[in-house]
Design goal:
- The protein is of the alpha+beta class.
- The chain has helices spanning 7-24, 28-34, 39-47, 66-76, 81-91, 96-101, 104-116, 231-267, 279-307, 313-338, 348-357, 366-384, and strands at residues 121-124, 140-144, 147-158, 165-171, 181-187, 193-195, 209-220, 224-225, 269-270, 273-274.
Length: 385
C-alpha cells in the first residue's frame, strides 16, 4: 500500500488546512450561537472546489480517489464539526449514489452543479420505523406509466435544509422485502415534497437535520437511480463507501483535540510546573496519540482497499466503529486534561465533546457495525470449511 501524497494533493490539503484555521475556526462560536454556517464560508468553500472533491473531473469535480478524499476530510474535521458535516455529507452519501449508480443523463444533469456546490446533496433512508432496521421502510413509490408516485416521510436527514438533490429510498414492491426497495433522485422544488423544521440537537450546530415529507410526489422514471429493486443494495454500498470517510473525520477531530491538549498541558501551571510534567497527564496524552496513530493506519488501509475495488464490508464497518469510539475516548480524555476549562462553552473542547457523540449513532450505530462484522466473520468462516 502506497499512501504517498501527490504534490497537487499536498497543495490542496495545505489550502484546506489554512482555510479551516483562518476562515472557519474564528467563526466557531458564532456557528454555535446562530446554528448556521456563515454564507461567506460556504461561498469560499465552493470557490475552492471543496464540494467537488469526490465528483469526477469530467463533470467539473476534482475526482479524488478514496485515499485522497479521506485526507481532505481529515483536514476539514479539524474545525467546527457542523461545517465538516455539511461538506462531508455532500461529497459522501449525498452524491456518491449518483456518481456510482447514475446513468449518463443523470450524471450530466446533476453532477456539474453538485461539483460547484450550487446544488448540495443529501441521503434519505432513515424513517421512524427504519433506523437500524433499514429495510423496514414505509415510504412507497408506486409506478404509474412513466412516473412513480412517492408517499411517506423520512427523518433525521442531514443537510435537509441545505440540499437541493436527495437520494431517496422507497418501497416499490412490498412483497419482496429489502429486494422491493428502489432509489430515486428527488429535487427540492418537486411539488408535494416538503421539509420539516430543523431538529434541536445535542451537537453539530450549523448542520441541519429534519424530516422530509412526500405527498403524492411525482418522480419521472428517468429519476430512478439504478434498477427497480436495487435500492437497498445501493444504500448499503453508499453507506459502506462512506465509512472510511467517517473514520477520517474522527481522525482529524482527534488530532485537533491532541493539539489543544498539548498546548494546554505546556501552558497550564500547577504546583509550580506545567501539568505536562505530571506522569498521569503524560500517560493520557500517550494513550491519545496511540489511538490516533492506530486509527490513521486503519483508515487509510481501508480507503486504499476501496480504491483497489476490494470488498470491504467488514473492514468498513470496523473502521467506522473504531474511529467513532476513538474520537469519543479522545474527547473525554481531552476534556479531563483541560479540567473545568474543558467544560466551558467558550472553549472548543466542550463543543468537540458534544459533537463526538453522534458518530457512534449516525451512518450506522456501533451495534449495527458489530452485527455486520460478525456476519462477515461467519461468511468468511463458512467459505473456509
Amino acid at each position: 500500500m502506497n499512501f504517498r501524497v501527490a504534490e497537487e494533493l499536498e497543495e490542496l490539503k495545505a489550502i484546506a488546512r489554512k482555510f479551516v484555521k483562518e476562515q472557519v475556526e474564528p467563526f466557531a462560536n458564532q456557528i454555535e450561537e446562530e446554528n448556521k454556517i456563515p454564507s461567506h464560508i460556504v461561498e469560499k468553500s465552493k470557490e475552492l472546489g471543496f464540494f467537488g472533491i469526490s465528483i469526477p473531473e469530467e463533470y467539473g469535480g476534482l475526482g479524488l480517489d478514496m485515499v485522497s478524499k479521506c485526507q481532505m476530510l481529515e483536514e476539514f474535521a479539524k474545525t467546527h464539526n457542523g461545517y465538516t458535516t455539511l461538506v462531508s455529507c455532500h461529497v459522501g452519501i449525498g452524491s456518491v449514489g449518483i456518481v456510482e449508480f447514475g446513468n449518463d443523463a443523470q450524471k450530466k444533469k446533476y453532477l456539474p452543479k453538485m461539483a460547484t456546490g450550487e446544488w448540495l446533496g443529501a441521503f434519505a433512508l432513515t424513517e421512524p420505523d427504519a433506523g437500524s432496521n433499514a429495510a423496514n421502510l414505509k415510504t412507497t413509490a408506486k409506478r404509474i406509466g412513466d412516473k412513480y408516485i412517492l408517499n411517506g416521510m423520512k427523518h433525521y436527514i442531514t443537510n435537509a435544509h441545505d440540499a437541493h438533490i436527495f437520494t431517496v429510498m422507497a418501497v416499490t414492491d412490498p412483497t419482496k422485502g429489502a429486494r422491493g426497495i428502489t432509489s430515486f433522485i428527488v429535487e427540492k422544488d418537486t411539488p408535494g415534497f416538503s421539509i420539516g423544521t430543523p431538529e434541536k440537537k445535542l451537537g453539530l450546530r450549523g448542520s441541519h437535520s429534519a424530516e422530509l415529507y412526500f405527498e403524492d410526489v411525482e418522480i419521472p422514471i428517468e429519476n430512478r437511480l439504478g434498477l427497480e429493486g436495487e435500492g437497498y443494495i445501493n444504500a448499503l454500498k453508499i453507506l459502506a463507501n462512506g465509512r472510511a470517510g467517517m473514520a477520517a473525520r474522527c481522525l482529524g477531530s482527534s488530532e485537533k483535540l491532541l493539539d489543544y491538549s498539548m498546548q494546554h498541558t505546556k501552558e497550564r501551571i500547577q504546583f509550580n510546573q506545567p501539568i505536562f510534567e505530571f506522569q498521569v497527564i503524560q500517560h493520557m496524552l500517550a494513550d491519545i496519540a496511540l489511538q490516533i496513530e492506530t486509527l490513521r493506519s486503519f483508515t487509510y488501509s481501508v480507503a486504499w482497499k476501496v480504491d483497489q475495488g476490494q470488498r470491504v464490508v467488514k473492514e468498513a464497518a470496523m473502521v467506522k466503529l473504531y474511529g467513532s469510539e476513538v474520537y469519543n475516548r479522545v474527547a473525554d480524555l481531552a476534556l479531563q486534561i483541560h479540567g473545568g476549562l474543558g467544560y466551558m462553552k467558550d472553549y472548543p473542547i466542550e463543543r468537540f465533546f458534544r459533537d463526538a457523540r453522534i458518530t457512534r449513532i449516525y451512518e450506522g450505530t456501533s451495534e449495527i457495525q458489530r452485527n455486520i462484522i460478525a456476519s462477515e466473520l461467519s461468511r468468511e468462516y463458512e467459505a473456509k470449511v
